[in-house]
Write a structure and sequence with these properties.
Blueprint lengths: L3 H48 L12 E6 L5 H11 L5 H10 L9 E6 L4 H10 L7 E4 L5 H12 L3 H7 L29 E4 L7 H16 L4 H12 L5 H14 L6 H13 L7 H8 L32 H8 L8 E7 L2 E7 L2 H14 L5
Antiparallel strand pairs: 1-2, 3-4, 5-6
Helix pairs in contact: 5-6, 9-10, 9-12, 10-12
EC number: 4.2.2.29
GO molecular function: lytic endotransglycosylase activity
Organism: Atopobium deltae
């Protein structure tokens, strides 16, 4: 039988041996891990050496792809677009061919369509020549402001919004378009004149100036067919209100932003003309929305702005959007009514106006409309 001392020594030796074994195991595992990493890395390097880098996804031969190049885009950005789209397999080769054609600063903005397998040289020649698609069509809906039009132009044609806004000044075009002479001095805005329409700029070098001139030319073509002189005489005779051509355009823009349907436009116009005749505030939320660029709040209607028609009588200093022909016709020939108030009734699937002659009727109509709404859960 072992003594206590002998037993303790034996246990100690056993413990030490166990620790040494664990350390040795850990070392072995570390060495194996390092070796495995080296082997995997070497294998990848060998594969990379013999077979090249992982293949870039290329478009199939003849497969179509569309890219839009923004004005001012660098050659580096264009190369990345082409590479990411799968139209080229090497940006290095693209830059080399760009240098060969001396086309570093000749790429034109716009929308292009290319097929997979198109040689880089042909792609660059097309980029220098200009857009090759019909996607350089710009559709401007009624009721847009100059700012929103600029955003649409950037999205569709690639012209930066800030460049369009910088160019869209009345002073740049007053000498070329006679109708702009109606704008009061001190106003340098083209608000209201950028005619809503679909424009085709295919096969053209598109610039902000080209787009704006096309819109002003369209305004001149369409609106010259309207009889502004007769409209001013009619408004003066019916309401005792004297307006300029520019103010008729401004009235039409307010109608455009307020009316929900074409049928209601002449009725909305009658409300505003009746108010002008009585020297009342127009009290149009839409005019202040033009300033705050969102749906107005009660607090907004207390802000002092020439576009706040709750605080300032008469029309706004400028139009608040580019109106439709329907809104201009309503401004020229409003319905004959005794209405001074309206509000919009929102129902599932449609909206309509409710018109009233007095404030009491107006309040009652609002209360009835609220009562008729289904209780919210």
């Amino acid at each position: 039988m072992q003594s206590f001392k002998s037993a303790r020594q034996a246990a100690t030796k056993s413990s030490v041996a166990s620790v040494d074994a664990k350390v040795q195991l850990i070392r072995t595992l570390i060495i194996l891990t390092i070796a495995l990493t080296v082997i995997v890395g070497a294998g990848f390097s060998i594969k990379h050496f013999f077979f090249g880098a992982p293949a870039h996804t290329q478009l199939a031969q003849g497969q179509k792809a569309t890219i839009t190049i923004k004005a001012g885009a660098s050659a580096k950005n264009v190369a990345k677009q082409l590479y990411d789209t799968g139209l080229i397999d090497s940006t290095k080769n693209f830059f080399a061919e760009l240098e060969n054609q001396k086309a570093q600063s000749s790429i034109k903005p716009g929308t292009y369509e290319f097929a997979g397998g198109t040689p880089i040289a042909d792609i660059i020649r097309q980029l220098v020549q200009g857009p090759n698609t019909n996607n350089n069509k710009l559709t401007v809906p009624e009721g847009l402001t100059v700012e929103k039009t600029a955003a649409l132009v950037e999205k569709t044609l690639g012209i930066p919004q800030k460049d369009f806004l910088a160019q869209a000044k009345l002073s740049n075009y007053a000498g070329d378009f006679a109708f702009l002479k109606d704008v009061p001095s001190g106003t340098d805005s083209l608000e209201g004149f950028l005619c809503p329409k679909t424009y085709d700029f295919s096969d053209k070098k598109v610039t902000a100036d080209l787009v704006i001139r096309a819109m002003l030319s369209q305004y001149q073509k369409e609106y010259s067919e309207l009889n502004f002189d007769a409209a001013r005489a009619h408004i003066q005779k019916t309401y005792g209100v004297t307006l300029t051509n520019y103010q008729l355009l401004t009235m039409a823009s307010i109608i455009e932003r307020e009316a929900v349907t074409d049928e209601d436009r002449p009725l909305v116009a009658s409300v505003f003309y009746n108010r002008l005749k009585k020297d009342m505030f127009l009290q149009s939320d839409a005019t202040m929305s033009y300033v705050v660029k969102r749906e107005v709040t009660p607090a907004d209607l207390k802000k002092d702005s020439p576009y706040n028609t709750y605080l300032h009588k008469g029309l706004t200093p400028t139009p608040t959007c580019a109106p439709s022909i329907a809104s201009l016709k309503a401004a020229f020939n409003p319905a004959s009514t005794d209405y001074y108030y309206f509000f919009i009734i929102e129902k599932k699937g449609y909206s309509k106006h409710a018109f009233s002659k007095t404030l009491e009727e107006h309040k009652q109509a609002i209360a009835e409309a609220k009562a008729a709404q289904p209780a919210q859960r």
